[in-house]
Amino acid sequence: MYHVVEPCSDSGAYVAEPAEKVRIDMDRVKEWLESKDYRMKFTSEVIIVAVHPDEEVELGFYPSGKLLFKTTDKEVVDRLFGELAGMMEEREIS
Amino acid sequence: MAPKVVVLLSAGIDSPVAAHLLADAGFEVSLLYLDTRPFTDDRTVELVRELGKLLTDIHPDMDFYTSDFSGAEKEIAGNCNPHFQCILCRRMMYRAAKKLGDEIGAEAIATGESLGQVASQTLSNLVAEDDAVDITIHRPLIGLDKEEVITVAREIGTFDISTRPSVCCMLTPDGPRVRSTVKEVREQEEKMDVRGLVEGFIFQKVDG
Questions:
Q1: Residue ranges, chain B, pLDDT below 70
Q2: ipTM of the complex
């Protein structure tokens, strides 16, 4: 589903984008994050901002399937991407 | 007595240059940074503080204020069509700048906007933004191209700070509205508590 994770335009974060157009069920993403003890900073239909419970990295989850990792540590990003990509794929609506 | 203007400062290349040009032109400039965390991050805030420090070192009469802006961002993201996020955000930023201007006796507000540098900076969008406030809005960069702005930014030392890694706004939509009308942005704002948000802006002066 995903493109390779790459730095965002201002180079201070990493972004993973789906290779194809998808729609994600944000309510189910929110439920999953809460069940895994993520610290929720903001939830809406257009974005969820949450902090990973162990890595203390802020993350953005989008209905387009995009993931944003607010860190420049690529090892951490790769680890979190491994945790989250499958979860997002399971919450595809279309 | 020099005319007072509130300049909306961001972490980007443009707004510090706008503030510098206005101060050089004889305006009494007050910088205003609107803090959008959690939709940016601490590095961005630190970067803006450095920009403010540099500008106030160059222009000792310049003041620097900040205010929390996350409430406005959340209200827009939670209630409005995401394609209007950027323009609604800027309208709220203008209102914040006007509120500070009213408090400190400024006659105008100013931004680093120019035409065509990003997709959403179109003439129709600027007109729709202007509708948000009844105060003069100066845009000293309006006719400059990016290279001209960068030349000034390098001269005053802000370029190296503005181009450090930071987090781009997390709320920028994939397809921002590029030709908004006053009517449609007002319709979007009917879904928001604009007055309550403006009342909630509290400004803190940053000491040099």
A1: 116-120, 208
A2: 0.84
